[in-house]
Amino acid sequence: MAFATTGIGAPAAVFFPLSLQSSATTSKSLYLLPSSYLAHPSSTSSLSRYRYRKKKTTHVPKYSSRQNDEISRGELIWRATKLPIYSVAMVPLTVGSSAAYLETGMFFSKRYFALLVSSILIITWLNLSNDVYDFDTGVDKDKKESVVNILGSRSVTHSAAKTSFFIGLIGLIWASVQSGDIRTFLLLTFAIFCGYVYQCPPFRLSYRGLGEPLCFAAFGPFATTAFYFSQGGKIFSSEVFQLPITGRVLSAALFVGITTSLILFCSHFHQIEGDQAVGKISPLVRFGTETGSKVVKVSVTTLYSLLFVFVFTRILPPITAFLCASTIPLGKLVLNFVEQNHNDKIKIFTAKYYCVRLHAAFGVALATSFVFARTRILL
């Protein structure tokens, strides 16, 4: 059910030898020489020594950057745990539950928190197993924040992934039984299946560039709608009430799917070289970063355009437009950051975290608007 900081540019010292290396003629490079060499051009021994130093300084390690060479172990562990990414567990659940509250005025807290813990465990399985299988293919060979590389053990990581999955699955089954609605379990099963075929052998559809459609389906139509159904079912001991499918929950699921897929899409920008090396055909490998930045622009624009369309057509309550529109500055931040830095594989690393902020903020605003609409709270 899931799929993922601040970069610093290359050291200034690197640019001096690179400009020497790119000089086409001696005359063009003389302006870079110290004044003593210009005053005594016949001093061949000095010039030779300078050229020797130039050759030594022009060697730049392929991956010399803060991202790979100067990261503390604490930051590596932070990146490996991917804590911000766990918002993708909270947002579909909270949005789906609030959509159900808008319909019924009831909220089952035990189911909500059981599903929250279970969803976090399922996402932990996805993250850990993804590191395991990427380690097997070699795509994470030089990725220091890979859990396998940090622990130094593939088997331990894989065992932890499977343990998380089975415990999480028990929680999902319990909540589905409590709801009394088979649709809850079926949709959650479909969502998990999307996650499995996304990364696990023999499918590994992420290597064929199908990660984003699978991510959209898993978190949007499947998970968000399943969590909506989970708040119906056994409302009273003598009554079983099944929630209807409405335009509100479907539009909410659409929003969740878009913002979640945007996180995955932006996580590819800084991994193009590694993906190409192992034959992983991500969307950014297919059409490049410039087109990718345009895709981000279209996605963010579509998100807010649909918001106002759904409110104007009364599919969503008016307060939804007010609260969700408050996240437009975050959407603009994502759009501008990617547009300006899509070619910088160090800085662009941060893009996915900006997308996480947008995803969480938009989801909270959407869920809050449903609660306010039900309780008739006006701003």
TrEMBL record:
Which superkingdom does the taxonomy of this entry point to? Eukaryota
Name by which UniProt lists this protein: 1,4-dihydroxy-2-naphthoate polyprenyltransferase
Output the Gene Ontology cellular-component terms: membrane
Instruction: Kindly list the places in or outside the cell where this protein is found, as annotated in its UniProt entry.
Output: Membrane
UniProt topology in membrane: Multi-pass membrane protein
Keywords of the record: Membrane, Transferase, Transmembrane, Transmembrane helix
The GO terms this record gives for MF are: prenyltransferase activity
Q: Does the keyword Transmembrane apply?
A: yes
From the record, give the transmembrane residue ranges: 83-102, 111-128, 182-198, 210-229, 249-266, 295-313, 319-338, 358-377
Keyword Transmembrane set for record: yes
Example GO biological process term?
ubiquinone biosynthetic process
Instruction: Name the principal localization, coarsely classed.
Output: membrane
